[in-house]
Structures are given as C-alpha cells and as structure tokens.
C-alpha cells in the first residue's frame, strides 16, 4: 500500500462514507476525493476535495476526475426513496451507471458496498435489487471489482433515523455469538471495520472479481491494520 492512490468516494454522506472520511487523516498514501449532493462538516484533520452535484451528474464526475479507485457506498431505503421504483433507481440504476463511468475512465479498482444475502432471484425485493446490481456490475468487466456484503452495520448515522436498525445494533453483540459456521456471514460489523476493508480493497493490485462476506472482510481489516501499524513503527524508529 505504499503507492499513492487517488480514491473517489461516492456516497460520502452515509454511514460508511463518513467513516471513511474520518479514517482518511491516518492514511498518508491516500488522496481522498468525494462526491455528494450536499456539504459535509469534515472532522478535524480531514483534507479532501468534495464535489457537490446532483446524483445524475456523478457518472460524469467520475469521467472527469479519472481516479485510481472508486468506493461506491451509494444506497437508500424504500422509505426515503418513496417507492420500489425510487429505490431501484438509486441502488441499481445509479450504481451501475457509476460502474460504467468507472470502466470508461480507466478506474483500476471499483469497490461496491452491497448486502449479505444479495440474490438476483430472491423473493425479497431489497435482496433482489442488490443481487441484480451485483450481476450487472460484474457484466461490465471492470479491471477489479470488489463486492462487499456486510450484514447489520453498527455505527451512528446522521440525519437518517432507522429505528429497527438501532434496536438491532443494541442486541447484535449477543446475537453474533450464536452466528457460527454458515451463519457467520450474518454477524454484525462495526462501520469502522467495513470502512477499513473498503479502503484496503480500493488499494489492491490484482485484477478480477471478488465477493467478500464477514470472514473475508475481517481478514482484510486485520491485514490492513497490521500494515498500518508496521509502517507507523518504522517511521517512529
């Protein structure tokens, strides 16, 4: 991870986007850019370029900026979108357009935050859309595509009240203890862990298409943090 890399964060105002922004001061080999519809209050020490635009202009911004990597943390809820069609427009149509723009701009790494259980043939509307999005991103044949499939995320959202999720976060640490074997993928995850995994995959060098669930995500988090600690130790020495 010694190579300096320009990473464009799409979906900068959500839980994962904000967490990645908070982590950025610790990553001296990353130049972080972001695109969002509204301004963000940056935490102390954060330095990044933020482009403000409506979401239909985001693919063009990728084409103009030509980043090395894109982290796509775009997502909404059916309640916020107002309908199933509105949800699909964001979680499928917009995401695929972003992937297509990344392909055209020569982006090396495209990291997409999906969901555990994503399946294009699911009877569950949410999981069906997530699966269709994964399928259509794969068809673009990006140089490297990493699909992250977290379950419940633990962290504080801003301006996004999700009562059921909040209840789930309180009980998750206990429930996670019973998630073993094939059920491990359903364990909850801290937003900080998923953010670090996304950053690490955005810096990966090998090409290909990869799907990562809980165990694989946490392995990458541990490796990523070991490398950061080793680098800090060498600088201190």
Automatic annotation (TrEMBL):
Source organism superkingdom: Bacteria
Residues covered by the NAD-dependent epimerase/dehydratase domain: 7-116
Pfam families: Epimerase
Compartment(s) where it occurs, according to its Swiss-Prot or TrEMBL record: Membrane
Cross-referenced Gene3D superfamilies: NAD(P)-binding Rossmann-like Domain
Keyword Membrane included in the entry's annotation: yes
InterPro entries: Epimerase_deHydtase, NAD(P)-bd_dom_sf
Any one GO CC term of the record: membrane
The keyword Membrane is annotated on this UniProt entry: yes
Keywords: Membrane
PANTHER family tied to this protein: OXIDOREDUCTASE HTATIP2
This protein's name: NAD-dependent epimerase/dehydratase family protein
